[in-house]
């Protein structure tokens, strides 16, 4: 009987240490998803790989306060804070959703000193598809 030979070499998907801190990102994309209940900010590089993210919930807000403009501003500050040492200067902004945090998030991004190439509204609009839910009562 012959013994099976163990495979020697690197696995295809193995990660040897994190490269996130080493990566220099001159330009990126900031995705802001603003719903009525929460605001999620995701920062990616140009290829779409996530660099950092934050939400109103991870910024310490709970319940109905997560949907406020101030919570969206805090989420933007937490998401962009790590990007200064990675060298990101230019960014594109994609804003999605009907929430209150849309304008506050955009103002917070501008206040951080990021140069914006463009700002695009990517809120999905149906071409008369499904019947929408009833309108919110305020």
UniProtKB/TrEMBL annotation:
Keywords, comma-separated and alphabetical: Plastid, Ribonucleoprotein, Ribosomal protein, RNA-binding, rRNA-binding
InterPro entries for this protein: Ribosomal_uS11 (IPR001971), Ribosomal_uS11_bac-type (IPR019981), Ribosomal_uS11_sf (IPR036967)
GO cellular component: plastid; ribonucleoprotein complex; ribosome
Gene Ontology process terms (BP): translation
GO MF term list: rRNA binding; structural constituent of ribosome
Keyword Metal-binding: no
Subcellular location(s) of the protein: Plastid
One Pfam family in the UniProt entry: Ribosomal_S11
NCBIfam families: PRK05309.1, uS11_bact
Family under the similarity heading: Belongs to the universal ribosomal protein uS11 family.
Name of protein: Small ribosomal subunit protein uS11c
Native source species: Triphora wagneri
Taxonomic lineage of the native organism: Eukaryota, Viridiplantae, Streptophyta, Embryophyta, Tracheophyta
């Amino acid at each position: 009987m012959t013994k099976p030979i163990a495979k020697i070499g690197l696995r295809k998907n193995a990660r040897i240490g994190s490269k996130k801190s080493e990566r220099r990102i001159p330009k990126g994309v900031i995705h802001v998803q603003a719903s009525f209940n929460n605001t999620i900010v995701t920062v990616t590089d140009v290829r779409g790989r996530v660099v950092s993210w934050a939400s109103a919930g991870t910024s310490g807000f709970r319940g109905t306060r997560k949907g406020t403009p101030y919570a969206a501003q805090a989420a933007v500050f937490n998401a962009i804070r790590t990007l200064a040492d990675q060298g990101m200067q230019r960014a594109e902004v994609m804003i999605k959703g009907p929430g209150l945090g849309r304008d506050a998030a955009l103002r917070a991004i501008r206040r951080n000193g990021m140069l914006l190439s463009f700002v695009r509204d990517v809120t999905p609009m149906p071409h008369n598809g499904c019947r929408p839910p009833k309108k919110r009562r305020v």
